[in-house]
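Reopening this ticket.

The earlier resolution said the output was attached, but the attachment link was broken on my side. Pasting everything inline this time so it's all in one place.
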Amino acid sequence: MLENVQPGDTLILHGRNRRGMTTVTRLTKTQIVTKRGKFRKDTGWLVGSDIWSVLKAAVPKTDDIAEILKERLQSKLVCQVDACHINRLREMSVEKLQQLNTILETP
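Inline output:
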């Protein structure tokens, strides 16, 4: 599964509710070492993981990295919009509030 991975390669991490990326820092005979942990070469599973901290590494497919970067950007933008204080909205013009409302109502 991950036998051909080399230091410097990017891996995709799959967890319970999230995906991420990490870079291989070094290899041992049976493990792949990254900043996010050690993963088994034969299965990709995080070494020492339990039922709650499940994390698996895999070689990225064609669109995986672009999708993860898009997910990160979306999450960042959602947090920024969510953190917008009500007083800031009160200072906006009616036109800007209407534009914002139109955007929020669009599916």
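Reporter confirms the inline version is readable. The mean pLDDT is 90. The helical segments are 64-82, 86-90, 94-105.
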